[in-house]
């Protein structure tokens, strides 16, 4: 069974481990929530992501003092390692994806992204390619738990190449998704980029409004290692302009 915290990092933790930190974090949202409200009011003052009280807390480098707090509802918010979402931000129009557009019930995206990926998966199927959404929206608290898990497993430097710190994940916007293919067992690994499904996405994603956030060889710009499975919905017009520009989405959005 795929769980909510799967996605956007490798290797994936075993389900039993993945589930544990999420429950822990969700029961302790008050510190981060209260702190973030203050941080949002004073945009540049920082403190957005004070660590949750936990025996496994990692050093708090989540939000630098000069981080910019973004409006997460803006489809084109230039979210990266220097800009952050409030811990309290959650999209207002999340909808459940149907199965088999998603690999399991309970995966959510903002409505426009959900509609677009539903059409995308159908077109892929018509082309003989099977794709399914493995993960979608992730709350600040879920991202916090996931990031801490990876830090425990591999240290912060390596974890930061594959997993966003809380407040910095496009998954919190409700417009980012991770796609899987049965060709490689739905693993969110570089091998996805070599599957027929991964190649199909490279050719067709922009036509449905999706852009590959972290392309190969651009870690110096995006801050993240190549993630051929992670796409973000920006609308068809912008997606096609990004592709035509030759820029990464990171560069395009901060212009
Ligand atoms: Zn992802």
Question: Outline of this structure?
Answer:
The protein is an alpha+beta fold and 255 residues long. The chain has helices spanning 15-26, 30-41, 111-126, 140-154, 156-162, 196-204, 219-222, 236-245, 249-253; strands spanning 68-70, 83-85, 94-96, 108-110, 132-135, 176-180, 210-212, 230-233.
Outline the structure in words.
The protein has 255 residues and is α+β, with helices and mostly antiparallel strands. It contains nine helices and eight strands. The chain has a single domain, classed as Muramoyl-pentapeptide Carboxypeptidase, domain 2, CATH 3.30.1380. Helix 1 (15-26) crosses helix 4 and helix 4 crosses helix 5. The protein binds zinc ion.
Which residue ranges are poorly predicted, with pLDDT under 50 across at least 5 consecutive positions? 1-7, 9-61
- Tell me, rounded to a whole number, the average pLDDT: 82
Q: Walk across the major sheet and give the strand order.
A: 5-6-8-7
Kindly give the count of domains: 1
Number of helices: 9
Which architecture would the CATH scheme give at its second level?
2-Layer Sandwich
Q: Name the structural class.
A: alpha+beta
What are the secondary-structure elements, in order, as H or E? HHEEEEHEHHEHEHEHH
What's the CATH first level? Alpha Beta
* Percent helix: 25-40%
End-to-end separation: 41 Å
Categorize the overall geometry.
Answer: globular
Say what the CATH topology is. Answer: Muramoyl-pentapeptide Carboxypeptidase, domain 2
Task: Tell me the number of strands.
Answer: 8
Percent strand:
5-15%
Instruction: Give a list of the ligands.
Output: zinc ion
Main sheet makeup: 4 strands, antiparallel
């Amino acid at each position: 069974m795929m769980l909510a915290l799967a996605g956007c990092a490798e290797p994936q933790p075993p389900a039993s481990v993945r589930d544990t930190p999420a429950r822990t974090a969700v029961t302790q949202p008050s510190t981060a929530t209260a702190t973030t409200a203050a941080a949002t009011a004073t945009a540049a003052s920082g403190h957005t992501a004070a660590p949750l009280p936990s025996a496994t807390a990692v050093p708090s480098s989540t939000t630098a003092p000069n981080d910019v707090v973004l409006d997460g509802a803006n489809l084109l918010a230039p979210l990266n390692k220097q800009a952050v979402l409030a811990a309290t931000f959650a999209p207002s129009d999340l909808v459940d994806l149907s199965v088999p557009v998603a690999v399991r019930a309970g995966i959510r995206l903002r409505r426009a992204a959900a509609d677009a990926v539903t059409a995308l998966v159908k077109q892929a199927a018509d082309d003989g390619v099977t794709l399914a959404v493995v993960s979608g929206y992730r709350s600040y608290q879920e991202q916090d738990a996931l990031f801490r898990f990876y830090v425990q497993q591999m240290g912060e430097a390596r974890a930061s190449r594959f997993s966003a710190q809380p407040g910095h994940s496009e998954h919190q916007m409700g417009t980012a998704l991770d796609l899987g293919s049965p060709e490689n067992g739905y693993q969110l690994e570089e091998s996805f980029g070599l599957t027929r499904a991964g190649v199909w996405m490279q050719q067709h994603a922009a036509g449905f409004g999706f852009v590959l956030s972290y392309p190969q060889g651009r870690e110096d710009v995006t801050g993240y290692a190549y993630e051929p499975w992670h796409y973000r919905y920006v609308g068809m017009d912008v997606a096609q302009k990004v592709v035509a520009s030759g820029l990464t989405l990171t560069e395009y959005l901060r212009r």
